[in-house]
Amino acid sequence: MxxxxxxxxxxxxxxDTIKVSDGVVIEGYASLFGDQDRGGDIVEKGxxxxxxxxxxxxxxxxxxxxxxxxxxxxxxWDEVREDARGxxxxxxxxxxxxxxxxxxxxxxxxxxxxxxxxxxxxxxxKNDKGRRLLQELELWEVSLVTFPMLTSARVGAKGxxxxxxxxxxxxxxxxxxxxxxxxx
Length: 184
What we know:
The protein has helices at 49-58, 98-108, 164-183, and strands at residues 8-13, 19-21, 25-32, 42-43, 63-66, 69-82, 86-93, 114-126, 132-145.
């Protein structure tokens, strides 16, 4: 049985759906519905609705973190909502925070290219292929990350996009690195 208090992370590499403008504004999708990630999970439409409603009712916000580190907030998400495609976020990297300035430089240089959600699973079922369908999630944070998990999406910079072969190569390299780390 899954521990209900476990905080999980979903990494999402996005194509041209995330944009950085004015040096500090970020917007795009942190999660895409219906896409299987490397862990075999699929987030279903509506999975975030109850959590976003609770946060609004309690006057709380989804946090913007650097690499899931709660000691490193780097900005604020001004808008977090579900739509037909997924979990849309729009926020600001805070220029007065050193790590946020570094994040802007790294995004512009394409040294980082991902978003990742930090959440707790409240309701999930297995489909006929043994994949976990995430039906209700308690969303805690959305982080800028180096290694995203959802290979069908990624960050684009100034209109540039990677082809499918590029994505497969990156995915294979990440999987090789993960295997090596588990052997240590």
